[in-house]
Design brief:
7 helices; 10 strands; three-stranded antiparallel sheet; about 30% helix; three-stranded mixed sheet; about 270 residues; globular; 2 domains; alpha+beta
């Protein structure tokens, strides 16, 4: 059994080996962060900790003060879902990075709203750097709210900075094989943007060029079909009291003595 202090010579040299898979991927993400920090934020963003997490189906997130060092230094977390690296054009992945960098900017240079992470200040900053907030991810959506997507503005600073990054050969060297969404969903969204007049020449999503199988197994595992709902919402037609139960439940309101009406899945 190895102890914390029993470092071999190989362990001592390991930090100097920059060709390990973990370091190549995280180095690429840090390079992109630094590039957009310079081009879009005037190099004013403080350090944060970039992480990869695939437990959620959101593209990314920002968590203020998530990490602490033994000396007491505190860092924000900027998390990315690697499953979307496989499904989306690199420009879309980078727009997620910059979306979360804008939260990072607001946390240190603006005024975040505890009850609304996507407030007007954040939305205005997004537009100024070339990303249009929209709760639908399409033109015409709300610009502020708790859950918010965005789309790239064809003539905005972000796309120019992104193309500059990609022209230098930037790529993400590793792709998650467990897709968090169906590829058809991502393609349909891109087509909807085009139909709405948002025309951007973007790179092909990596999944389109991957082989169908590798080592006798699917290259990318798609999410399983959603299970049918097991609980449904019931509402009293008089007092609006609510309850949740199985689809064939017979429920009555204890106050109004009215039968509750099933309105849909929970």
């Amino acid at each position: 059994m190895r102890t914390r202090h029993a470092l071999s010579q190989q362990d001592a040299n390991y930090p100097h080996n920059m060709n390990t898979p973990s370091l190549t991927l995280y180095t690429a993400l840090q390079l992109a962060f630094d590039h957009f920090n310079t081009r879009l934020f005037g190099t004013r963003l403080p350090h944060c900790l970039l992480t990869l997490r695939s437990a959620s189906r959101v593209y990314g997130y920002h968590h203020a003060g998530r990490f602490i060092a033994p000396d007491g230094q505190v860092l924000d977390e900027l998390g990315m879902h690697p499953g979307f690296f496989t499904l989306q054009p690199i420009e879309a992945v980078m727009s997620t990075l910059v979306h979360e960098m804008t939260h990072h900017w607001q946390n240190h240079a603006g005024t975040p709203s505890p009850s609304n992470p996507h407030n007007k200040e954040w939305a205005d900053k997004m537009v100024s750097i070339g990303l249009q907030p929209s709760h639908t991810g399409l033109p015409g959506g709300r610009k502020t709210g708790r859950s918010m997507s965005d789309y790239i503005l064809p003539d905005g600073p972000f796309l120019s900075a992104c193309r500059e990054l990609l022209s230098g050969g930037f790529t993400l060297p590793w792709l998650d094989r467990h897709a968090p969404a169906k590829p058809e969903t991502q393609l349909a969204h891109l087509r909807a943007l085009e139909n709405a007049g948002v025309l951007i020449d973007m790179a092909q999503a990596p999944m389109a060029s991957l082989p169908v199988e590798v080592q006798g197994k699917p290259t990318v595992w798609q999410p399983p079909p959603k299970k049918p709902p097991s609980r449904f919402k019931y509402v009293c037609p008089k007092c609006d009291a609510k309850a949740w139960a199985a689809i064939n439940a017979y429920l009555s309101c204890g106050t109004c003595e009215e039968r509750l009406i099933r309105t849909g899945p929970a």
